[in-house]
Description:
GO molecular function: GDP-mannose mannosyl hydrolase activity; metal ion binding
Number of strands: 7
Cofactor: Mg(2+)
CATH topology: Nucleoside Triphosphate Pyrophosphohydrolase
Domain Nudix hydrolase: 12-150
Distance between the termini: 37 Å
Strand order of the largest sheet: 4-1-6-5
Largest sheet: 4 strands, mixed
Binding site for Mg(2+): 48, 68, 123
Enzyme class: hydrolase
Strand content: 25-35%
CATH architecture: Alpha-Beta Complex
Radius of gyration: 15 Å
Amino acid sequence: MLTKSDFLRVVASTPLVSIDLLVTDTQGRVLLGRRRNRPAQGSWFVPGGRIRKDEGLDAAFRRIVADELGLTGVERGDAAPRGVFEHHYPDNFAAEPGISTHYVVLAYAWTMPGAAPLGQPDQHSEYCWMTPAELLAHAEVHENTRAYFR
């Protein structure tokens, strides 16, 4: 595990690779969480997370679904790849001035069957469901999330 200062050097020096989950319900609404942490703090964003060193994509997908949604048994093969995106943020997790954050994001779309219970993740203070039209028009939905639905 990296120390905070070591991880800040990584953020300052290289892109991070992550998976974002474009989760919809059976009515076509999209799951969003209000971000607790930087970057994008305070905005509505799709669930997701970084891929760890030496972690395969399938394992990362399962872990991120469990961490963000509190669900087990969801496999990457259950989701449809939606492309590779880049997210650039002027700030960083530590709020250190002059250090931006760059993510390369693998986006996966998945429809959640039924009314599955959602866990309470560390990254989001609350969840909500919005239609794609609602999230595109909502000022507090982060631009990087809106880009998935254009």
